Fold these 2 entries.
Entry 1:
Amino acid sequence: MARGSVIVVGAGIAGLSTAWALNRRGFDVSVFEQGPIPNPRATSHDEHRITRYAYGALEGYAYLMPQAFAMYERMFADIGADHFARSKVVYFLREEISWHEPTIRALTRLGAGFRDIPLAEVAQRFPMVRTDGLTRAVETDDGGMLFPIRILTDLTVTLGARGVRFFADSRVSEVDPEAGKVVANGREHRADHVVIAAGAWVNKLTPLLADVVVPSRQAVMYLAPPPELARLWSEVPVLIDMGLRSGTYTLPPRRGTRLKIGDHVFTRSGDADGDRLATGADVERLESAARLAYRDFDRYQVLERKICFYTVTRDDSERFAVRPWGAKAWVVSACSGHGFKLGPLIGDGVAAAIAGERSAEETSRWAAGQLDLAELGAAEPAA
Ligand SMILES: Cc1cc2nc3c(=O)[nH]c(=O)nc-3n(C[C@H](O)[C@H](O)[C@H](O)COP(=O)(O)OP(=O)(O)OC[C@H]3O[C@@H](n4cnc5c(N)ncnc54)[C@H](O)[C@@H]3O)c2cc1C
């Protein structure tokens, strides 16, 4: 007999991971999704996402990363496919930014490999990178790329085979967190618990995080590099360029994906239900950041300019907001650029809280990356 019933709203990485963790614990799970499953408009729906240990000032998340990697390994064993390409991650620092010291402290405490690349070697190893203005280059060993579309699809297939019920094209318009009730397409559904994992739509379903998170319209570009660099690009690691005023992250083409470049400046504006046509204004900042990072950037052919949405914190904290709401609901919101790599781990934590394995207060602090290494060892979920 099931331990209880749970309605999960949203079939992105947060919702599907929570469904996976609840299903493993013996709960009866239903997933409501406003579009198809997986949904191309979801933040999670993309060719690749970066995963890595180096976290700058958000040290608490660096300490979660060994568990986050282990949770993905467990997921891949369970779905029978490995959607992860291991790769080093190389950071190019262009100014004296505050990233270096806390990152090196966390990597050292975790025993994760890293080293400086002498600046004189950068041009030879990474001929596509602009070396003017570089102050430091750091290579880290533990990281790589996750392949989200394949992960979401395989997870859906696995969960369906285990009895998870999917309600596609079912937009939830109302949630009653005290009664465990949702209304979707005009019909009421009840469960012992409701988990809202609605990504950039979260504030349309609950007022709980209205002061904390905001959707942010972002642009990314998929590119074809100049032919003479194509081979090199297929072999380079994930590249991250960091300055005070601009920065880019670049995922090289791997396993059938395209070269992708994005920046890490949040617009904190836009509506996830709005249009997704990339305008010149959407890509202007990204293009100028890319010109600062790469030589001859204008020779790269643009294959697609894509608009997608982050949910980000209103302040600069970039922390997950995971909170109980009323007697029967939880709200899960990934904030900024670590929602995919941490999704399965956070989903497991939410399921652990619902199953009574961990207190609500500790779950919220843990998901916010506010436990240190010693506390994390003691707080690991028992699933
Ligand atoms: C450009 C970009 C680059 C990123 N890069 C990285 C990276 O390199 N590494 C990393 O770890 N993270 C990265 N992220 C962040 C990461 O992708 C997100 O944090 C994560 O995918 C969010 O997942 P989610 O499940 O919370 O939201 P979503 O994937 O958006 O899922 C929410 C789902 O809920 C559904 N929904 C919403 N409202 C309703 C409703 N009322 N009824 C029914 N269904 C509803 C939506 O349709 C959607 O399918 C990046 C994000 C962006 C935008």
Entry 2:
Amino acid sequence: MNRSVAVIGVGSRGVGVLERIVSLSRLTDRPAPLRVELIDPRCDGAGVHATDQPDYLLLNTTAGAVSLFPDHHTVGDAVSLAGPSLLEWVTDRGLRLGEDGFTVSHTGRPIRSTDFLPRRVLGEYLGWVLDEVIAAAPPHVTITRHASAAVDLTPAADGDLEVTLADGEVVRVAQAFLTTGYTANADRTPKPGMLPGPYPLPGVLDCVAPGQALAIGGLGLSAMDVMSACTVGRGGRFVPDGDRLRYVPSGREPKLLFSSRTGVPCRARTKVVEFGPKYQPLVFTEAAIDALRAERGGPLDMVKDVLPLVFTEMRIAHRRRLAAMAGTELRLPHEDIPAALDELDRKHGAFDPIAAFDGSTGMPLDDRAAYQDWFADVVAADLAEGRRGLTGSPVKSALDILRDQRDMFRYVCDFGGLTPESLDEFTASVVPAINRAVVGPQFERHEELLALIAAGIAEVPFGPSPVATPQPDGRWRIASTMLATPHTRDVDWVLPAQTPLPAVAASADSLLVSLHRKGLIRRFRPDSALVPGVDVDADQHPVGADGRPERRIRVLGPLCEGATFYNNLVPSPGMWSRPVADAHRCVVAALADLPAAEPLLTAGTTLLTTAPEVTT
Ligand SMILES: Cc1cc2nc3c(=O)[nH]c(=O)nc-3n(C[C@H](O)[C@H](O)[C@H](O)COP(=O)(O)OP(=O)(O)OC[C@H]3O[C@@H](n4cnc5c(N)ncnc54)[C@H](O)[C@@H]3O)c2cc1C
């Protein structure tokens, strides 16, 4: 009888799964032996948040918004391990934030819940949580760490799963969780002069010499990481200069040439990131989506069916904020809300949610100077909004619907909720627009970008969608495609500043390659050039090449992107949290699927009395 579970991939998802296994095992009144095999080359819990990266590489989640300890909002009574949020953890250790705004050590000011901390610190927190969870396991649960990658997984004749590790060990389990996160894809072969991607930083930039020209493809979070590595990472400093920042160079910076497909800058996070109570939607609701589904008789079209609801909700959020700022409350009729909003627009001036969402209004395409000036003006105007915070910015409040109502988007999209064509369109243009609007860089990064543009170290000269062509001398030529007066530059290096989603059919990860080859996993949308992730059913079981779910395996995290929406996040406390909910329901089901065993204790006896509580 094999009562055993493998957790393959021990980043935040794997740690979350283990926490659920341990907590539910502590809470059970029918304890039975359980073996848990943790498999990961590092097995330190950090996953993508490596502990050896420099402090200037920051999280895009604030310190108070991260906790690996589930609470009742998501798991109800199934809370067993109490533990600190990231904020409480750093505070308990006397850690503080340095004057540079990113270095975490024992000097500086106290860390606030609204601070963006180094990813390194999250990695250390995750490692600590992993140790605590393992230490809290009840006696009937045995946990083994295998510091090795899984390279193969084979269903054995007796119904077990055989997991082969890179070090040659073979582990037999009854159930497996696949939480492998951002596995690399096989197509990232470096070309001369083209850096393979933005990570790991700063190592990936070692070949870029001071003064060389580096074309950065992207304006998002990874591009800002590269910018930090090329500036503060090379000894430069940003100093206050009136209400702006000024850059003091070290002389070791390359020249940074930014561009992107749309040419639209991201919106930065507000200066102080505080969200307030969850937004209560009036029109972008489950009932409205259910009604649309009933009307369409099947999957929806995100752009045609759903975005109109989202835009109306943004208009409501905008008016609600204006009303709150005036000390009143927005009252809308139950019938024909859009007409009531039109009336408010006529009286008080219009708010265009589509323009706010799209962000390209007024983009001049005359020449490089006109475009770059527009770009810098848009960034500066957004920073001005960001200084007011959500409570002082109706525009930011309207856009925040896109973050706050993420679970509604999941309700729309998950498990085939969109037509294949619409999922492609959603992936290609709606998700990037959402990310630009509400998952943009920290406020300070955009202040720094403006300072670098002013210092002539950074430029955004090409307009949308420039093309990069390799030159015989190993350099690259970047040419605008949309400017009336074309602009062309030869650069020493190009760097695509995106982290591609893990691809089922083009993975560099031996395990995923093998699972795909054996038909144990397949792509969710095999015909799509945009959705590379795994097909999972609503219970997170991978669907195989034969169309049948493999019930001994459950997949969680970024590999599921496409079949489910927005998997690339760490759990947050004090609210219903999807990563926790997924881990909980999957662990409950996996434990129930294990072969029965004689209980170790009489039914009704709880192990809670014998297991130590994790304290902070
Ligand atoms: C650069 C970057 C920054 C990010 N910053 C944030 C942030 O600030 N806030 C946020 O909420 N999210 C952030 N994310 C999103 C990120 O996806 C989540 O935070 C979270 O780390 C995902 O957890 P995970 O466990 O699914 O994946 P990961 O953290 O990637 O962990 C996966 C683990 O699986 C292991 N693994 C892979 N293949 C195998 C194998 N074959 N056998 C065994 N082990 C394997 C890896 O070694 C790794 O340890 C960021 C992502 C990236 C890429």
